[in-house]
Amino acid sequence: MFLDYGGRMKPALLMLDDGTCFEGLACGAEREAAGEVVFTTGMCGYQEILTDPSSCGQILAFTAAHLGNYGTNAADDQSPAVRAEGAVFHDLFACAEHIPFPHWRAEASLNHRLLEDGVTGIHGVDTRALTLHLREHGARKGLISALDLDRPSLLRRAGELPPVQGRDLAAKAWNGSVCTFALDPAPAADPTDKEPGGRIKVAVLDFGLKRALLTQLRAYGMEAVIFPGNTPAKDLLAQKPDGLLLSNGPGDPEPCGYAVRAIRDLLGRLPILGICLGHLLLGLAKGGRTYKLPFGHRGQNHPVREILSGRVRITSQNHGFSLDPDSLPAELIPTHWNLNDNTLEGMAFSGIPALSVQYHPETVPGGRDAHSPFARFREIILDSRGDAGRKHA
């Protein structure tokens, strides 16, 4: 039995904008949550997806039946706080906060983390029925409330919520200052470097950056200088970076015209790697079109086929929009396809040092068989610097 709000069990409702209502019990902060209700299919990794800035604007419903059993810890955060608007669980592990948590990595319970970050949740929900409803009818606007249990009132307010389309959620998700994520500890001078002690410096346009992306850049010997997503191209070029990473982020790419303009100015001038929202923005910069998926791709078990090798990679994903491959110019070459719905999952450019993937190659949360875009990105940077033939650091 789960006790909340000082030991009291408190009823809560999840109301969708089509009038479908799910009953449960309140957890997390004693407030309301509003957003697009979507489902995520991972069996674990709940902390990573809740703290992923790509989850801004979303109420996440977890399809796994049992959540919270290994607690939360600072090391698994993908940003400093929970970024989802709310969370929906079937069975949420209950543990009194004064009792040591029964997992060696845990620093707090999942409920405590939601409470600490001011995020509302609901548990005891029939998440199987909710997932089937969202698969059949698409992602819906919705509200979680333990404060207002009047169903007509909740339905009216859910219908008044703004749609995801047309909203610039990336501007809500990025960090507003320039900062450096350096190689640490600093390696000794490498005689194979272009210059003694030289580094590969990558400018990162932050649209809702996950920490794991920076960790992977560092693992491949690249230092990141992070810029807010609305930084003009000239300010990036002034830093003389060796390459550009377009980060993940939430929501609809279409309102991010500032990013599309910057990418157009930078294509052909820097090697570029686009990830998730960055992939979509790269396609828009070349004249492509995006469209909203019925219920999106979220979880760490999505099969993607790499066209060149034929290899199938099990990938981590968190997005609700996709690129229309028929809208892309001939110089954009598809490199990956989603095996669940045949959507475009990756592309490369003919004659331009740029590539992108829709999935999350840092694979957090998820398996470890999708890192190859980072290796390829490093190769094209070294080629552009005249360092072809250098081995991976």
CATH class of the largest domain: Alpha Beta
Helix content: 10-25%
Q: What sequence of helices (H) and strands (E) makes up the elements?
A: EEEHEEEEHEHEHHEEHEHEHEHEEEEEH
- Rounded to an integer in angstroms, the radius of gyration calculated over CA atoms is 21 Å
Which structural category fits the helices and strands?
A: alpha/beta
Structure, explained:
A ten-stranded mixed β-sheet has the order 10-12-11-13-14-19-18-17-15-16, with helices on both faces. The radius of gyration is 21 Å and the shape is globular. By secondary structure, it is an alpha/beta fold. Strand 17 (332-338) and strand 18 (344-349) form a beta hairpin. Helix content is 21%, strand content 29%. The protein folds into two domains: 11-159, Carbamoyl-phosphate synthase small subunit, N-terminal domain (Glucose Oxidase, domain 1, 3-Layer(bba) Sandwich); 170-385, 3-Layer(aba) Sandwich (Rossmann fold). Mean pLDDT is 90; it is low at 1-7 and 186-197. The N and C termini lie far apart (51 Å). The protein has helices spanning 46-51, 110-116, 127-137, 151-159, 170-173, 211-219, 233-237, 257-266, 277-285, 372-385; strands spanning 11-16, 21-28, 33-40, 58-62, 66-67, 86-88, 91-92, 120-123, 140-145, 179-181, 200-206, 222-228, 243-246, 272-275, 290-306, 312-323, 332-338, 344-349, 354-357.
